[in-house]
Amino acid sequence: MGQETVCITGAGGFIASWLVKKLLSKGYTVKGAVRNPDDGKYKHLRELEGAKERLQLVKADILDYQSMIEVIRGCDGVFHMACLLTDDPEQVLEPAIKGTANVLDACAEWGVKRLVMTSSIGAVYMDPNRDPHLVVDENCWSDLDYCIQTKNWYCYAKTVAENAAWKQAEERNLDMVVVNPCLVLGPLLQPSINASTAHIMKYLTGSAKTYANLTQAYVDVRDVAEAHILVYETPSACGRYLCAESNMHRGELVALLAQLFPQYPLPLMCSDQKNPRKQAYKFSNEKMKGLGLSFTPMKKCLADTVASLQNKGFLH
Ligand SMILES: NC(=O)c1ccc[n+]([C@@H]2O[C@H](COP(=O)([O-])OP(=O)(O)OC[C@H]3O[C@@H](n4cnc5c(N)ncnc54)[C@H](OP(=O)(O)O)[C@@H]3O)[C@@H](O)[C@H]2O)c1
């Protein structure tokens, strides 16, 4: 496996950077598809061990089919990760839906051995009619009408894109496996703060004075990168893989952060003083564990995330 050439779309992103690092360390040759290879923001990739010999950053945009055809040519496998985490429909709908379709077409055109697509828990859990006692697993799909009503354009885009990708993969006889991570935290390799890290930054900096009456499932970025490699390298891997370690209320999250880092002005109060505390839904990560992944406990993930933010000078 290690001698293979693989392409990663959006190679400079938070999760993708860890995937590039791990693939290089396993001996893969990596083609990183990025929109502007000359941008200094990819310096961390060029400095990775093995990068000089086996990493090539190629100018490619998932919205430009021809550029996808060119970058995927000669690759054994493809990891499709490029997508912005935003609820701005202008920025997320077309890249998620058309961009994914372009990547699939290019993979099918060259007959790549396997495509691993990074979808999201956002394509899984957004369903107000789901029985609250049901364990959320790979069989669950988000409700598109609910995503539209709540203007959750990111979840809408990921759901439509993944659903269309399954149809397209079947039509084009393409071997595709999907990873559905929940909110990803962990140490940063890239120089800037990504959207999911911003989720905890606001509590650590004191810009959020209260926390919401909401729950969220979390996972460590190193585990998500590992999950992608496991589903790529395991021939029997198929379908979707939920990638989640624990589901916590915001109150539990800030309490854990306060316990680890009492020096930061973490909020003590919930913004909702009227309603009962929201219960976290149960989920299953058994399928992912079945491939051999052991998830990093959230306490360690949070400790490493904050240490990384301190090392990079985002927190003091
Ligand atoms: N982070 C999470 O909590 C989380 C959770 C579940 C699923 N995911 C999924 O995991 C993947 C990676 O997320 P992330 O948080 O690591 O993202 P990120 O750090 O925000 O990086 C996203 C990348 O997508 C690229 N991109 C966006 N539009 C593009 C286009 N039109 N053509 C080519 N590249 C484009 C960007 O590339 P440039 O360098 O060219 O700007 C950027 O490197 C996404 O598919 C996301 O939906 C993330």
Percent strand equals: 15-25%
Name given to the CATH homologous superfamily: NAD(P)-binding Rossmann-like Domain
Summarize the helix and strand pattern as letters. EHEHHEHEHEHHEEHEEHEEHEHH
Output the structural class: alpha/beta
Query: Hetero groups bound?
Result: NADP nicotinamide-adenine-dinucleotide phosphate
Number of helices: 12
CATH architecture assignment name:
3-Layer(aba) Sandwich
Low-pLDDT sequence parts: none
CATH class value: Alpha Beta
Strand order of the largest sheet: 3-2-1-4-5-6-10
User: Distance N terminus to C terminus?
Assistant: 42 Å
Q: Estimate the helix proportion, in percent.
A: 40-55%
- The average pLDDT value, as a whole number, equals 97
* Total domains: 1
How much is the radius of gyration in Å?
Answer: 19 Å
Remind me, CATH topology? Rossmann fold
Shape: globular
